[in-house]
């Protein structure tokens, strides 16, 4: 658990951990310089918790991603679950996750659905994330976005012990790149590593309450997603596709440095090759939005021949909506920007 000024909701989360039908073997809390009662609440909980609680107070602010990764590095168990300070775990969460891990030892990461609730834990009737069926996926999925979210994630500790995570690439989201870039988020990083090196398990059953409130660091998950997505798409141009190509190359280099101990080398090489190929695909898309008419035509034809539109993101292709957008960009130069104009809230 990474904490920072979380006193308002922290106790409910801690109580839900103590109430697990299968308790964790340990709990590691790294506090990032809280100025409220967060540390005192954790210390009070540690005095009566039915498992060992280790508390670390950072000398300087790390930010949420590096704080989570520091906490994970201090864990001694084979499996690690990220835990946000403001959510609530349902009593059987860890038992259900352990059941999946026992049945399929090849899994590197699990993630599950969650109920979306308001600040006072009032149900919204929605789930986020929502996985429609239980499944184990061994293939490499779309590498630019995380299909797992930190508070739902349990992963093998070896994922973070294979690499120097302080040298991880900068973030690369599906939306246009932010003006100020930061290192890859903790949950995106572990998902991308698991995605590259082995199997992931998706659990459709909601196992936590995902609280959205006025102080939440991450998005509010409003129902305006379609409108926001359309606006972001219109603002996505050559610069965004170049950024994504660069990130894919950086991530390919990053995972190529994985320790060879205990790693499927054929799977590792497949991931490196696939990310490098996809970087080339993004540069062809960049040229559609940047080049002259004949360059746009040539780039579009090459993408079609490479079957880059034959599917969706889960197949490492751009999909049919991208096909329509790119056709418009070829026919109407200048309708999309040469450079992205930043993120949309």
What name does the CATH topology of the largest domain carry? Answer: Spore Coat Polysaccharide Biosynthesis Protein SpsA, Chain A
Share of helix among residues? 40-55%
Q: Name the CATH homologous superfamily of the largest domain.
A: Spore Coat Polysaccharide Biosynthesis Protein SpsA, Chain A
**CATH arch. level architecture of the largest domain:** Alpha-Beta Complex
Report, as a whole number of angstroms, the end-to-end distance.
26 Å
Q: Average the pLDDT over all residues and give the rounded result.
A: 86
Oligomer: single chain
Order of helices and strands: EHEHEHEEHEEEEHHEHHHHH
How many domains would you count in the coordinates? 2
Q: Overall 3D geometry?
A: elongated
Strand fraction band? 15-25%
Task: Count every beta strand, where a strand is a DSSP E run of 2 or more residues.
Answer: 10
Note the total helix count: 11
Secondary-structure class: alpha/beta
**Which CATH C-level class of the largest domain is it?**
Alpha Beta
Q: Let me know the largest β-sheet.
A: 7 strands, mixed
Radius of gyration: 21 Å
Poorly predicted spans: 174-180, 222-232, 340-345
